[in-house]
Amino acid sequence: MLLNVIRRLGIFALTVLVASVLVFFLLGVLPGDPARAQLGLQASEEQVQALREQLGVDRPLPVRYLEWVTGFFTGDMGTSYATRSPVGPQVLDALQVSLLLVTGGIVVAVLIALPLGILAAVRHHRPDGMVFSAISQLGISVPNFLAGLLLIAVFAVTLSWLPSGGWAPPNSGIDFFRHLALPALALGLVNGAILARYIRAAVLEVMREDFMRTARAKGLKPGAALLRHGLRNALVPVVTVTSIEFANLIIGAVVIETVFVIPGLGSNLIRAVANRDLVMIQSIVMCVVILVLAVNLLVDLVRPLIDPRLRISS
């Protein structure tokens, strides 16, 4: 088990290093000049060249990469081309906001997916089970931004129960939850519907296994057999899918942050792209990559705890 953890940590570190190379060089070779984008078309070539030297974009890519990656992993993410201020504090503040939003979305998704997926599987031959499946299919077809706009129209504009946008820090108490409710719900509804489909498929597969028939033959009712023996086995593929859904939540958060005017990674990324602020873009993308890889690593370490058979195979 310890060797498996060490091996996976090594793979994680190597993947992060390769990702940093890809992120930097793919963004670095994109057409366009940050200095020209800031000064405009009317600036002289001498002014543009002076700003290139000031920003450091006139140096070779490998030199800039070594400086950036060394600084990134030591806490110095560089200086923003647009604001001329350190990137690190801006990215970390936005990362905290996005993590809170994504965590809220995960909670909403799980609260929706677990009962909906299990009921759709247990009652799949009955009309209400078909209704549960239809609800999950409908949820999959609704984009995140449309769900957000509909929630704003109902709960913010019509009922005036919740704010339509903005953000409040966690230490603001109830105001924080009021600002988090709609974006987390918009983010979690669609992903909850997707996760419910996977839970339904996993539970249906487990219900057909021999050990479930044996449990029922010993006198357990179907629901009790599922709770005592089936759900733990069904959780293995669901946990794996949840790690994939986490990446979808991060991507969906970009749109939701724009709809609800939330100062997270997504809104900062869109602003950095508009300003061609490569240092900011690279740092944000790298933080997202590390976050997704860390969640996948955590899932790989948790799966053997859920299913002891995986300890032997690993």
Automatic annotation (TrEMBL):
A Pfam family this chain is assigned to: BPD_transp_1_N
Record PROSITE patterns: ABC_TM1 (PS50928)
Record keywords: Cell membrane, Membrane, Transmembrane, Transmembrane helix, Transport
Main location: membrane
Database matches in CDD domains: TM_PBP2 (cd06261)
Domain ABC transmembrane type-1: 95-299
GO BP: transmembrane transport
Localization: Cell membrane
TM region positions: 9-30, 99-122, 142-164, 176-199, 246-266, 278-299
Keyword check for Acyltransferase: no
PANTHER family per UniProt: DIPEPTIDE TRANSPORT SYSTEM PERMEASE PROTEIN DPPB-RELATED
Family per similarity comment: Belongs to the binding-protein-dependent transport system permease family.
Name assigned to this protein: ABC transporter permease subunit
